[in-house]
Design a protein that fits this description.
Layout: E1 11-14, E2 33-38, E3 56-62, E4 74-75, E5 86-87, E6 100-111, E7 119-123, E8 132-138, H1 141-144, E9 163-165, H2 176-187, E10 202-206, E11 209-215, E12 219-227
């Protein structure tokens, strides 16, 4: 038998996704901002010395929502319609032998002196708010970038994007940056691929908003924007 390895989270993500629905399927697909807050025992400023010199970092994290669930040798990638099975090691499914996720994000700023200790500000995070972080490593372009690499079945769906119809009536209370990020998220079509009912009303939570929308083959239609303080109809 192999040795048992115990790992403790060193930090957690503080972001704008309170639930799984709507989170980008990969890091860097939307300009979502987040902070990385470290546990007290990992707040030594010298542990971050030199990190500010990098533009991107790797996050190793825990699929906390699926931790403890049984894994399967094959999974059904949602982007392939949910019917075609692929080997779990050929996907980035959360239902793995060990629920470890990997994301590359842009490092915007390193703040060493805050009430919460050192804080990392990142762009392009695809993590649920509160997700435990196991480790952080710098992204090295000379070693980590392989433009000639083949993307397998994922290459066939990487350019998938819908138009987003965001009516003027819902723009008044939404800042321009918020609207831009919402459009980036919706353009990736957060619906399961097997749901194609153009009359169905969906709700995606982002920050303090719930975005109500419908979708057809080519366009996501924003129907309503609700702030948390508003009564949901």
């Amino acid at each position: 038998m192999g040795n048992i390895v115990t790992m403790n989270p060193i930090a957690h993500i503080c972001g704008s996704f309170p639930e799984k629905f709507g989170i980008p399927r990969q890091g860097g697909l939307a300009d979502t901002r987040a902070k990385i807050i470290f546990e007290p025992e990992y707040r030594a400023a010298e542990a971050f010395r030199g990190l500010e010199d990098y533009s991107h970092i790797w996050l190793l994290w825990v699929f906390s929502e699926s931790a403890g669930r049984p894994w399967s040798p094959t999974v059904r990638p949602p982007r392939l319609g949910g019917n075609l099975r692929k080997g779990v090691f050929a996907t980035r499914s959360p239902f793995r032998p060990n629920p470890i996720g990997l994301s590359c994000v842009r490092l915007e700023k390193v703040e060493l002196d805050t009430p919460e200790g050192p804080v990392l500000h990142v762009l392009g995070a695809d993590l649920l708010n509160g997700t435990p972080i196991l480790d952080i490593k710098p992204y090295l372009p000379y070693a980590d970038s392989h433009p000639e690499a083949e993307g397998g079945f994922a290459d066939g769906v990487k350019e998938y994007e819908l138009e987003v119809d965001f009516p003027m009536e819902w723009r008044a209370d939404v800042a321009e940056e918020e609207r831009r990020i919402i459009c980036q998220l919706l353009a990736q079509d957060p619906r399961p691929s097997y749901q194609q009912d153009p009359e169905r009303l969906y709700g995606m939570r982002y920050a303090d908003m719930e975005v109500k929308f419908t979708a057809d083959d080519k366009t996501i239609h924003v129907v309503k924007i609700l702030r948390e303080k508003e009564e949901k109809l």
